[in-house]
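Consider this record:
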Amino acid sequence: MPVVVAAAIEYIAAAIGTEMVLTAGQIYLASQAIVATAAVYTLRENQRRQQSAARDAYNASLRDRYVMTRGATEPRQVVLGRQRVSGPMAYIGSYGTNREHLVFALILAAHEIDAIEHIYFDDERVTLDGSGNVLAVNRRDLFTLTGTSATFTLSSEPAAGTVSATVAYGTTQVSLGVNVSGSNVTVSGGSAGSTGTVTIAYQPAQSPWTRTEEYTDDQAVITLNGSGNGSVTLPQAPQAGTVRVVYSTGSGEGQSDYDLTPYASVSGSVLTVTDSPVAGVSAYVSYRWNASTSRARVRRYLGTAGQAADAGMIAALPGVWTSAHTLTGLAYLVVELDYDPDAFPSGLPNVSAQVRGAKLYDPRTGTTAWSQNPALMMRYVATSPLLGRQSAATVNDASVIVAANVCDTAANYVVNGRTYSRTLYTAGLAVKAGGYVTPLQTLDESWLVGSQAVQVQARANRSDVFNVATGKF
């Protein structure tokens, strides 16, 4: 403020002379100029602070949405559109000889949802197999590129074939070539004279969520046709150089072995024998593979009507978790973690998921399906028993149809010479839905500790009491 006032006086002095001999009128005009300038400055400063506070509040709400919580009185959550969310742990317990296995149920939504697309441990998306075992994490390291190429060192050595890189010049995304050597990645294909942010995506060679044993020996059988050709998919991918294919005839001292390994090739877990001199027979395969044990497992439930209780929890917690614990109508995750200080150096990870939320009724088609249409979301909010609790008859579906059609209008836009197409309006919401619960106890002065007198705090001034509603366009 003093800087603004000084600037105003300096301006007036320059206009009327350096001797500053002011008449009463000039003094009045100068004071009004100073007041006006100060008012504008104050208004802009308040606007800046309000915008900063709103931005901080919005960013905090995004973080809160996918932070895992514990508590028996957490509000129920309604999820619409595509959102990354977490929620309260409805149950947490341990099992095993030494209680070395931890299991918990994490509620994502208080209603049925369409799909659970991705699982995150802390801020890293994990890769699951068909049984829910966590196999790997998908990591992203950021760097700055100031030329056409550069070499960067990743935070951990990547698994072979998992590295990709892009550079962002403003809104322009450019794919880069990569050359990997250990933890060093050399990227190429950047723009000369430009500075951009490089994102290198990869899976670490050693996942923190899996334990790799030294090796395991195994066997299989391959059947060769009349041309001496055949293939078999092994249960595991063999270590390089450990596969041996042998055909044996006779037994005892008369046994003869034919080594068919020179005619064999391996791609992943598929073993192929080509042009073997021995045809129309079955040969034995021996090989060695790395045995990995997952330290974490995740199972998904969408909250469908009649969903069964988790069989893994029933087996692990007999008498505690039973077939009656179905959590019907709740979308949730079952997360199992094995004690390991290397995998969990900071304790329990924050688990969240990217989900496709509630299925929405569309009066245009009479069907109920997942959608990101804001008009259909508002209809759902109005009629949901957790939110608006209105009957369908109170909704003006003719207006919903008009609005929904506008939202679904195709729109093309051009960014850096490339044309993109999408619907005009989409949305995603995560709403906390609270409900009144009958109290278990009545609190009165008898609950106070000691004989200290009750103190009454004066009510805040009316000017300090206000509600805030924020929206995102």
